[in-house]
Amino acid sequence: MKGWRRAVATACGWSAGFSLAAMMLVTVADVVLRAAINKPIRGTLEIVELLLACSFFLALPATFLRDEHIVVDIVDGFAVRWVPLLRRIAGVLGVLVMAAMAWQGWIAAKDTLMFHDVTSDLALPRIWYWIPVLAGMIGSCIAAAAMVFEGKNGR
Amino acid sequence: MSVTVIGILGVVGLLALIFARVPIALALAASGLAGYAALDGWAKALKMFGTVPFNLASAYSLSVIPLFILMGAVASRANMAKELFEACNAVFSGMRGALANATIGACALFGAICGSSIATAATFSKVAIPEMKRHGYDQAFAAGCVASAGTLDVLIPPSVLLAIYAIVAEQSLPKLYAAAFVPGFVLAALYVVVVFVVAWLRPAWVPRVPGMGLAARLRASLGMWKLGVLFFFAVFGIYLGWFSPTEAAAVAAFVAILIAFLTRQMGWHGLLEALLETAHTTAAIFFIVVGAFVFSRFIVLTQFPNEVARWAQDAGVGPFWILVAVTALYVLLGTFLDEVSTILITVPVTLPLIIGIGFDGVWFGIFVTVMCTIGLISPPTGMTVFVIQAQHPDIPVVRIYLGTLPFLVADFVLVGLLIALPQLVSWLPGVLKI
By the CB < 8 Å criterion, does A111 face chain B? Predict the structure, then answer.
């Protein structure tokens, strides 16, 4: 893997990994405080949901850059000369899918911002949840395009 | 064009994309989007496409998946597999086939905390196969034993695959875990029977290994304590009413990290590696979940599952033949699809069919999971077989497949038992009143 791709994928992985660790720690703290002094952390569910969105979407560009998508590669056994073309087509499809997702996500996020949607317990602005989601979608679109450009799709 | 035709074209398009090497998540998302647009217009389809990922990625019930994966990633780094193998070997020591049965026992128990068949097979191919080879076991049988036993984790709770099924089929996860206990341990017992039968028919494949003394047995058995603690928090904590499944997963992952640090089996570097591995694995799985939900929105719109159920009823197809057809479908899909994709793609279509013939969603969850264990060792793409072959290039893939054949018989015996005795699934949830 090229240096820049490894660096970006690792950064994405770390961000997602730390969100995951935070999700675990918040949940454990909530359980312990509830059991020990009957004082659970208010809004744990909403915090966990936010951290879950971070841990999934921040790692998604790394899945493209590390080429870790699950692929059925039966065709490699009998039509090996078609594989580079199929990889390229899959890469382009990846760019289109992620671009459509990001475009529609952007529109939905703008609505959330306009209507000042908040969560029910902690009144966290819903747009906070959209930030990692959009970052992941746009990042994945760029990562998919970079992979097509470098001809690296599909192991 | 009729709705049914669009539904069929959508499924054919999905399969075409998957065979054309398009990543499964992208194939599901693209065919689901196109199909939805064909039925309800592009404006509504695109709106759905933008909101499904957001709704899924921030759904609290999904948080159980990365947390159980983290527990497994930590357990894999904390030497628990080797200790479990030694403990199980102490239990079976002195019997013919002791090492093979120790492998099955250790894989079942380690799989329960690891949650990944591939990780379990990879770990035990390093731990168990060299030991079996050293004692003169037939190498194909040894490899087949690890490949098959490595699949037990998808059934024995806490299973990540059952958590994914619970989400896609909208079933209770505690009930599914309770339901999986008996079939999971029956399958492990059937594998043990297979070892005894092979040892009886082909004694040269399974030589007798000298037994251990009582003191050595007791010492080795103590190696199971870590697993016992993790299992207690991850599974019993739910049934004791202490935790929800997500809380149980978080506490178990935290306890796994504590144990690994306190026993000096893992340091900060190992923890960071486990977090990174979990993040990457979670992203790959969640992306398929997102694609599958887009595709299932399209399938729901087509009314395809209801159409198939109605067609089966009108044609007078009996429940037995519907079960045979569904079993054949999963055997076929298992030959080229991974288990997560298999469940996510098929359950929206097959679940209504199965409910229509009198089974419930919990029973079907266990049935589908058992079918996935078959897919994991079926040619040409049995994933656990490839993992073992990658670590033992001296054992040809064909010979590993031959080694898994006796265990495949056990898998199909369990499928038959599940159909003939659905109480195997419903008994424990009934006892626990969940």
Answer: no
